[in-house]
Design goal:
The chain is an alpha/beta fold and about 260 residues long. The protein is built from nine helices and five strands. The longest helix is centred in the C-terminal third of the chain and has 21 residues.
Length: about 260
């Protein structure tokens, strides 16, 4: 018999109510993610670069390769790069973190390319080159004006680039428009007519139809090359052996670049 006048009641375990997170507190899982992210960011330095990735994801640090210093060496490198391009064996050189860092203080491109604006003929891809390798100036039909000439002169006179290559290409739209307008007598829109006026001296009237367009592409390359070679500052560099000016053509069907003499 129980002498306690208070009847026994079964003791139920107390249920602990979930504690609401403190405002601003970060759950453990998120803290781990943030810690990892901050660790990666810290490895990049105090500044946060747009598009930066954690240091652990950085590719292998390749040292900058030796760049050509003469026109002959530059031509060999461009030829080798185009061979890699057209055989689908691109190396995508000079894009490593080490090269990018080295290029923050100086640049030493080994070739100066005057090409067309055509989206199918980007010089860095066609020649399988990377950052700091090529200085490229592009205008429709490789047309020369003061801005183009000044840019070319800068590459030669200020940076000492030994090779200037004029690169035309198969199925050039600017040349085609010029040839067709010449045949029809039609005037093109104002700024496009300027391009046609510059290209028209190269029109090969000895041929007809598509053959005329194709021949004019080659003739335009030769004309631009001769105009550049006649520029006094560039001519002086050619005479001294410090510069070579060559013409070349890119074939869309084969992806091959070949010299135009």
């Amino acid at each position: 018999m129980n002498s306690d006048p208070t009847p026994h009641r079964a003791v139920r375990p107390q249920r602990t109510a979930p504690v609401a997170p403190v405002s601003g507190a970060t759950p453990p899982a998120r803290r781990s993610l943030l810690r990892a992210a901050l660790t990666g960011t810290a490895a990049l330095g105090a500044g946060l670069a747009i598009g930066a990735e954690p240091a652990a994801a950085a590719p292998h640090l390749a040292t900058p390769r030796k760049r050509p210093t003469t026109a002959e060496e530059a031509l060999r490198e461009l030829s080798a790069g185009n061979r890699r391009w057209r055989t689908f064996r691109q190396q995508h050189p000079d894009q490593s973190p080490a090269v990018r860092q080295a290029l923050t203080t100086s640049q030493h491109p080994f070739a100066l390319i005057l090409g067309c604006i055509d989206s199918r003929v980007p010089p860095e891809l066609v020649f399988d080159q990377g950052l700091g390798d090529l200085m490229t100036i592009r205008s429709a039909g490789q047309v020369l004006d003061e801005a183009v000439l000044g840019s070319l002169a800068y590459g030669v006179l200020e940076l000492g680039i030994p090779l200037l290559m004029v690169v035309g290409h198969q199925s050039c739209g600017a040349v085609k428009a010029t040839v067709q307008a010449d045949g029809s007598g039609e005037k093109l829109p104002a700024h496009i007519q300027y391009l046609a006026d510059q290209i028209s001296p190269a029109i090969d009237h000895s041929k007809d139809g598509d053959a005329r367009i194709d021949a004019t592409i080659d003739a335009n390359i030769r004309l631009i090359r001769s105009r550049l070679a006649a520029e006094p500052d560039l001519a002086a560099k050619v005479d001294s052996g410090a510069l070579s000016i060559v013409g070349a053509r890119y074939e869309l069907t084969s992806q091959r670049v070949h010299r135009i003499s």
